[in-house]
Amino acid sequence: MSPTHPPVPPALLMTIGALTFVDFLQNGMVTFAAAPIMGEIGASPEEYTTVAVIYACVAVVLIALQGWLVYHLGLRRYLLASLGAAGIGAVVCALSLSEAGFLLGRVLMATGCAAMLTSSRLTVNLIPPGPARFRGIKALATGLCTGTALAPWLASLAVEHDGWPLMFWLVAVLSVLAMIPVALSMPGKEGGATVAGQARLAPIAALGLGSFLVLHALQRSYYDFFSDRHLLVLFALAGLAALAYFVWSETRTGAPLLKLGGMKEVRFLSGLALFMFCYLMLGANGYLVPLMLQRALGHSWANTGVFFAMGLGAGVLTFAVMSQLLARWPSPRKFFVAGFLALAAFGVLMSRLSPTADAWTDVLPALACYGVFIMIVMPATAMNTFAGLTHDPAVFAHAQQVKNMLAQVGQALGIMLATVGQQWLTSEHYNVLQESIATGNANFEAAKAQLSSVYATVADPAQAQQMAMAHISQMLNQQSLLLANLDHFRVLAVLAVAGVLVSLTQRVFR
């Protein structure tokens, strides 16, 4: 007679799904609506990426401290405090009128949202091993997928109605609602904790400072490389030294916050590299795709959000099919190949878009390919990266923390590379296009004369010429932005093809 397992409490499954839903929803909305938020709070792209860098550094520190905090607070109080911090931070963001206020709100949100994904995955382990535990995995994946897919749609609705703070009010409300299943299902201190570790000020400070210095040096390299390159190199080296000190310290103590010494497995390190690439894609494309569709192709924020959400929704459907196939054909190689082929198709299709592109026949298929990539490669990586670490609950928990620390850095780095790269490529293309419209160029003179004649019906000749030049300048900006984005997606397609080749030849994930 087969043993029977007690049913999984619905509140536990709701907790697992709610944590990933809130985290991925808020991150997706903030990334998607980056451009309008910048305009409303008066922040430049450089200042906005600084906010993303600080968010990532705070999150990295809080994730490292998670085991220690759970040990001292108990899982229930820890999660309630995390949701409370996320809700308060969202309210501060909603009320902020400047970059400083927005930064404060995002720091508070980082303290709350930092370890939600880790907490969700470790909460799955509260379910006894067996088929019931897979229900917990599906609840986690459902929250992640739906949060990722709904983020652009909800953000676009808020932006379209001149109410970008509504995004943060929504996060605040969801954080409060998520407290209900947490209070009902999570154990307190009596439930114990996997590990406690020892929180020592010097290593923790080195972790936070090192993360900031490295990311800050990368961020500033575009603006100050030639004028301050020696200082930037010094920042980067100091940051790497601080991170090395943290790793050295954690491997030398008897009660580390993170058992890094147990994570030398090739499978785990390879999985971390794949995760890092995926989070880079989430950050970079989450920022660039809406910018391209709205500014370069002329779509409204509402349409941009709807089509981006539908594209990611195709990924959700893909994962639903994939979850059925995994039981019969668990080998991950075919999933990685399929995922990177989908990313290559996304890059190629996006690199061929023009201002006359149709949203249904040109844009949506490309975004659907991106959704397929995300929802195939990330789950397949998650299901294979930690397979060799499950024998030790402490190492498994710490491995989840390390992965999610890198996720924070990866998304911030993706946003940073996208903003800096987009600014650089746009300026390069603008300079080339501007040279082609110098006085005396036949096409330029013809366009200027035609536009001047149109504007002459509503203005005097001098004003008509000024309006014509302003129109041409606007067209130059739009074309420069479009060409810069097309370059981004061409590079992305090349990286995806490299990913296909690596997936076919690698021997780690078979």
Structural summary, described in words:
With 510 residues, this protein is mainly alpha-helical. The chain is built from 17 helices and no strands. It has helices at 10-32, 34-41, 45-64, 66-73, 75-95, 99-113, 116-124, 131-160, 165-185, 201-252, 266-296, 301-326, 333-351, 359-385, 393-435, 442-455, 461-505. The radius of gyration is 24 Å and the shape is globular. The model has no long low-confidence stretch (mean pLDDT 86).
Produce the secondary structure layout.
Elements: H1 10-32, H2 34-41, H3 45-64, H4 66-73, H5 75-95, H6 99-113, H7 116-124, H8 131-160, H9 165-185, H10 201-252, H11 266-296, H12 301-326, H13 333-351, H14 359-385, H15 393-435, H16 442-455, H17 461-505
Helix pairs in contact: 1-7, 1-8, 1-9, 3-6, 3-10, 3-15, 4-5, 5-6, 5-9, 7-8, 7-15, 8-12, 10-15, 11-12, 11-14, 11-15, 11-17, 12-14, 13-14, 13-17, 15-17, 16-17
Q: Tags for this entry?
A:
single chain; 510 residues
Summarize the structure.
This protein has 510 residues and is mainly α. Helix content is 81%, strand content 0%.
> Can you summarize the main beta sheet?
none
N-to-C SSE string, H for helix and E for strand? HHHHHHHHHHHHHHHHH
Percent in helix: over 70%
How many strand units? 0
**Average pLDDT reading:** 86
- pLDDT below 50 for ≥5 consecutive residues: which ranges? none
Cα distance spanning the termini: 35 Å
Principal-axis shape equals globular
**Structural class by SSE content:** mainly alpha
- Multimerization state: single chain
Strand content: under 5%
Count of discrete alpha- or pi-helical segments spanning 4 or more residues: 17
Radius of gyration equals: 24 Å
